[in-house]
Amino acid sequence: MDGLHVAVVDIREAKLDIAAALDFVSDPRFGGIASFIGRVREHNLGRIVTGITYDLFEPLALNTFRAIGEKAREKVGEPLKLYIAHAKGDLGIGDPAVIVAAGTPHRDEAFRACRLAIEAVKHEAPIWKQEHYIDGDSAWSEGCSLCEEQREAERAQRHGEADHGHVR
Amino acid sequence: MDGLHVAVVDIREAKLDIAAALDFVSDPRFGGIASFIGRVREHNLGRIVTGITYDLFEPLALNTFRAIGEKAREKVGEPLKLYIAHAKGDLGIGDPAVIVAAGTPHRDEAFRACRLAIEAVKHEAPIWKQEHYIDGDSAWSEGCSLCEEQREAERAQRHGEADHGHVR
Amino acid sequence: MKTRIALYGALREADPSGHVELDVPVGCDIAGLRRLLIQHLQQHTPSIGAGLVERSAFASAEEILHDARSVPEGVELAVLPPVSGG
Amino acid sequence: MKTRIALYGALREADPSGHVELDVPVGCDIAGLRRLLIQHLQQHTPSIGAGLVERSAFASAEEILHDARSVPEGVELAVLPPVSGG
User: ipTM score of the complex?
Assistant: First the structure.
C-alpha cells in the first residue's frame, strides 16, 4: 500500500521519531493530521515502574501493521497516509514506545484512522511488554490472546468493560 | 489552569511548533499523547487554493481557548495537559494553522480531550479564514455563528448532516 | 454615547479602518446595537447584507454579549461574523 | 519431524536459548502441537502453567495459524503469548 510506513525500531539503534512520522503523512491534499504517541509512564497499577522491555516477533509484527493499514484504508477511504512504528528493547520512563500518525483531507478521517490503528496495534500485533519495578521485580504484562478460540471471549469481555466505563 | 498552554502565533514572527506542543503535554505520569495538526490544503470545495489569511480577535480567542481547556478537564478528568495554538496572518499551502495536543495517563482520555478541543476551536473561537484562489479571487469562509439565537439551529443542522455522513 | 466596534472577518470590508463608531442611546441593549449597525451598513456599505450581521455576535475582549445584555459604556466592542478557524 | 518453535514474551522463560524443538508426527495439527508443547513444558519448565500456552497463538512469520491448520513442514514457528504492545 502506497502511503503506508511501518517499522520496528531497535532502541539501541534509534529512537522513534515523531517529526519523521508527521512528515511522512503530510501532503498538499491533507488538511488534517492526527497522531498518537505512547510513552513509558512511571506508574502502573499502583507500582513504580523504572523501565519497560519490549519484545516483538518482528516479521509478523510488520505484517500485522501492514494489515492494519489496509483495514484503515477500507474504513476511512482514500486518500490516507498512515505511519506505524513500535520500539523494541529496553525503554526508560518517557521514552516513546509507539507512534501512529494519519493524514487525510479532513480531520474526522484522520482521527478515526489514528485511533483504529493504535487500538489494533495494542490488540493484534505480536508485541510483549515486561515491566521493571523499583523493587527490582519484573513482570510480563497480561494481554490480549491472539488465539482465535480465546479472542472472541476476551474481546466480548473487554467491550463489556469499556461500555461500563463510558456509563460512569 | 495549570497544564494548559494557549497561544495565537503571528506567522510573521514564528510558525506553529509541534515539537514544543508535544514537549509541553509530556509528563512522567502520562502514557498517552494525542495531537492534531490542521494544515492549509491546496483544494477546497473544488477550487485550487493558493493560501489562507487567518484573522483572529485575539483576547477573546485566548479566553475561548482557556475555557476549552476547562471544559476538557471537566470531561476527561485529571491529570491532563493541553496545548492549543492557532496561527494568524497569511499562510501558504502546508503551513500549520492550528495545533492541539493532549497528554493523559491513558490513551482514551488523550484522544477525547484532543478531539473535544479541536472541535471547540473550530466552532467557538473568534477566528476567520479568507481563502485565496489561483484565479486571484478571495472569499471569507462560511462558518458557525457565535450568536446564541442562531447557534442552536445551526448546531442541530450540523449534527443532522454528520449523522447522515456516518450512515453512508 | 459613542460606541466603537471593531470589525473582523468578512465584516472588515465594511470599513478599511477596521472599525465603525455608532451613536448608541443610553440603556440600549445588544439587540438594539445590532439594528443600529445594520442601518449604518445599509447607508455606508450596502454590499454587506443584513443577514451577515444577524448571524454575527457582539463581544467584549472577555466574552460574547448576548442580545439581552446592555451595551457597556466606554468599552470597545467587536462584531464577530460566523467563525471558521482551524 | 523436528519442529522448532521460537519463544516470545513470558514464554521466553521456558528456555534461555529462545526456542524449543519438538518431535511432531506428520499430519499433526496446531491443536496437537499445542498439546505437545504443554507436555514438554510440564517436564522441562513446570513453572509455566498450561493456561498460558492455552491462551497463546502459534504463527509463522507471515500469519497466525489456527488450531485446525496442519503444522507446516520445515518452517520455524513461533508461540505467541497474549500481547501487550503500545
Answer: 0.93
